[in-house]
């Protein structure tokens, strides 16, 4: 996870960088090794900042074998002046303030057709994407 403003700075760096900074075509993880969180860490930080938030962790759930720590060393090496500056706590507070600022009260927001899972399900149903989420020719 990365704050949108930090990602925008990274994209600007990628657009303006010289080929000597990683070659003509470069793929890398963008973020910070220090701010590498698991979902439960995010949930607990939200609960700390917004105490009314109920956090429920299924103690009987199988561990998510997909979980891993993303390595951002290459981004730090090639773009030291464009490292993320918005930490998790600041980001959560900003999201809360933004939602309060627009008086967001939509209890059914998860039903939106713009939710990523709904978009993917729709594309699968229309056969635009295959079972591996690849574009169908």
Q: Helical amount among residues, as a percent range?
A: 25-40%
Distance between the termini: 31 Å
Radius of gyration: 19 Å
Number of domains: 2
Gross morphology is globular
Can you give keywords for this protein?
mainly alpha, 39% helix, 0% strand
Explain what the structure shows.
There is one protein chain. This protein is an all-alpha fold and 137 residues long. The protein folds into two domains: 4-105, no CATH class; 107-137, no CATH class. It is built from five helices and no strands. It has helices at 4-16, 39-49, 73-78, 88-101, 116-125. The model has no long low-confidence stretch (mean pLDDT 91).
Summarize the helices and strands and which ones pair or pack.
Elements: H1 4-16, H2 39-49, H3 73-78, H4 88-101, H5 116-125
Helix pairs in contact: 2-4
